[in-house]
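User: Run a structure prediction on this.
Assistant: Running it now.
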Amino acid sequence: MKRTIFVFGSISGVLVGIFLVALTTWGSTSTSSEWLGYASMILALSLVYVGVRNFRDKYNGGLISFGNALRIGLGIMLIASTFYVGVWLVEFYCFLPDFMEKYAAAMVRHAKSSGLIGDALQKRLAEIESMRTGYRNPIRVILYSYLEILPVGIVISLLTALLVKRKGVPVAVPAAG
């Protein structure tokens, strides 16, 4: 089980890291690029399903409980998420130190053009400023980064566990050789 988690988590992590670098290199800081970012997370985290199903079929005789499937899925997701956070930290601190200023400016432009007025606009601008200043603290950068990917990974892990769980009479696993 640990090997499956490590292998598929690492592959998923490398993929999500590649997507992150590609998006920050060729993407923009506009809020519309967030959708592309989340789509790339879903694509990379699809290896949660592949990994859990591989474990069920190859090592567990075609059977797996919801709990074990969820445990494997969450393990894969946690490794991939850690890769994501690590890649973002290197990118942010070494290559994109002005990212948050540009991103906050884009979010302010979006908020002002979205039709918000009065207190609603002021509240949104305060939220943006809070996030911008929060990015000065490395711990908050790590937490924000995990908060981007963990919800996606948890949902994918839950869906995977529901889809691949299979109870019944164990099937003999062929010996490797």
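Residues 2-164 form one domain.
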